[in-house]
Prior knowledge:
Layout: E1 2-6, H1 10-22, E2 26-30, H2 33-42, E3 47-51, H3 59-68, E4 75-79, H4 84-92, E5 97-100, H5 105-119, E6 126-128, E7 132-135, E8 140-143, E9 146-148, H6 152-163, H7 171-178, H8 188-200, E10 205-208, E11 212-215
Parallel strand pairs: 1-2, 1-3, 3-4, 4-5
Antiparallel strand pairs: 6-7, 7-8, 8-9, 10-11
Amino acid sequence: MRVLLVEDDTSLATALKELLEQEGYRVRLALDGKRGLDLALSEEFDLILLDYFLPSMDGREFLKRLRSEGSKVPVIALTVVSDIKNKVDFFHIGADDYITKPFHFEELLARIRAVLRRYAGLESAEVDLGGVRINLTQKKVFVGQEEVSLTLGEYLILEYLTLNRGRFVSREELLEKALKNYEAESNTVEVLIHRLRKKIGRDIIKTQKGLGYRIL
């Protein structure tokens, strides 16, 4: 998952970037609103973490311009302002969630996962894939009642296909988005898919030549 972090506090931005990358996210950092908007409109992201008070363009103006360009990428606002009027205003102009500084990193992670689930049309943290259950919060996978041990690469692919359930995902997209911080080689996706099928069953992940992989 690609995340755009727009935050002008260098120490906080650096710490958040490192922590998110440890969780498997690929993070692009912008230290001011104008640079952030340029990135948001020129590159593809799965989520934007947006500070409210920014140099060159504040978070409110950033979000208004982003939505006016037709972008539907989910946005979580980060701000020290906690009054309800400010929160409601941010939601009205297109924010998907709002978290007040200071916050615990675990809370931010939980909100990120919840927003991504909603964006993917998933109502629960636990998804039933037809005999296989994946808990996106605990990052656990079960076949029947038995938990299955997956490697990091196997889990990242299964999670990404689950969040994009119903559409074909190409090998290139899996390498770029699911395995961005994973040391991948040319045949990594094929190897990981093969291992996943041995562990969770061959029928869960479908393959279509020229299109890629899909979970129904």
